[in-house]
Amino acid sequence: MSDAPIEIGYIQQLEAEVKNLKRLLEINNVLNTILLKPTANIDALLGYLMNAAATLTSSQSASVILWREDLDALVIAATTTDATNLIGRVVPLDSIAGTIFKDQKVVQVDDATTDPRHYEGIDQTNKFVTRSLLGVPLIARDKVIGVLEVINKHTLPWTIEDIRNLSVLAGEAAIAIEVGQLVMALQKANAELAELDNLKNDFIAIASHELRTPLGIIMGYASFLQEEDDASVSEQASKVMESAMQLRRIIDAMINLRYLKQKTESLQREPIPLGAIMDDLKHDTLAVTSSRTHQLEFVMDDVESRIFVDRTRLLMALNNILNNAVIYTPAGNKITVTGRFHPETNEAVISIQDTGIGIEQDQLERIFKEFYQVEDHMVRRYGGLGIGLSIAQAVVHAHHGRIWAESDGLGKGATFFVALPLAELDEQD
Ligand code: ADP
């Protein structure tokens, strides 16, 4: 190795290089920060890129020109000049930018005024004349998506560093633009979905309330006719009444859908012995199952200890689960409801175990989704709307609890668990 002293010029060159790399790193960090914001904004991203490109290459201005699939054209997406009416302008494919895009190559022009490819449409709108230009293709995952251009270098000529810096920036920019576009498309799709969801909820709320009133009148007349001396009239009125009750249960479930939006603050919680909740549940269930004669068993070790819950809402949740157990379990089979305190997890756990049709492994989470039913709508053997479990889940989550289902598969029965935290009860005492 030579022990000749290192030249001062070489050190300065290295220092400049390090400074440059630091700047590129900084740009990369800012781009990532913009992208990672929940409100990722492609305009902010492009604006930052433009300024970085112009500063790095000591140029007067910069622009990003992107290929728009929908328009089948190259379009100006951002520029550092204040000529905002340039945004959205189509750039011809035989222009300098068009050439960079088509050939996927760097193009450097020292005197644009004599270059026949120069697109004068831009200068007419801009407040300055394009004299010199350096452009690189924007390539994301092997696909050219546009062009990054810097215009009018303060002191010509364009250097190797300019080309290298702009190319590095273009590499970063291409990926950032692609991710930014994806994020924005996702945000748009999410907003549209949320709007549709609101429309659906509004529709359900209005429709269910509107259905309730005429149904009330039908039930009123039916109950009146049930009292008739004529046996055939009272018998038919009873059939009307039975169907109307069924319809009312469906409408009530639809109205209860709003509990899906249930917030913890709107709960009316009080300390209640778990035994009292189990008694209420037993009472409600016996009213529904009397005709189907299931073997119902309620098991509890500790009836006195209390849980801190909204009694009405929790019972609604548990009733939904228990009604399902009744529906999906053949008459005569066993259903066991167990209430237990689990000091190790500081929870009260209520489980509802049936011996019915069972649930396949891949359905165990999906069944909690709004309107989801395992059986296809067209071939369904059971009634229902597919919202009972989603309501139960919303209520349990509003209590900061957990809800889940377990099953060994089809024909092997299912067990639903509701776990409620006890810590909040202690806070109340
Ligand atoms: P619904 O019972 O009105 O269809 P739910 O939200 O209460 O709506 O239940 C969603 C789906 O989960 C049901 O359609 C059924 O396919 C399945 N499911 C719920 N409970 C049970 C159960 N105990 N055994 C088997 N499948 C069940």
What does this 3D model show about the protein?
With 429 residues, this protein is an alpha+beta fold. It has two domains: 4-189, 2-Layer Sandwich (Beta-Lactamase), CATH 3.30.450; 262-428, Histidine kinase-like ATPase, C-terminal domain (Heat Shock Protein 90, 2-Layer Sandwich). The protein contains ten helices and 13 strands. It has helices spanning 8-36, 42-56, 96-103, 120-125, 160-226, 231-256, 274-289, 311-327, 388-398, 423-428; strands spanning 59-68, 73-79, 90-91, 107-109, 133-140, 143-153, 270-273, 295-300, 306-309, 334-342, 347-354, 402-407, 414-421. The strands form three sheets. The protein has a six-stranded antiparallel sheet with strand order 3-2-1-6-5-4, sandwiched between helices. The protein has a five-stranded mixed sheet with strand order 8-10-11-13-12. It has a two-stranded antiparallel ribbon with strand order 7-9. The protein is elongated and about 110 Å long. The N and C termini lie far apart (81 Å). The structure holds adenosine-5'-diphosphate (ADP). Adenosine-5'-diphosphate binds at residues 320, 324-325, 328, 354, 356-357, 359, 367, 372-375, 384-390, 414.
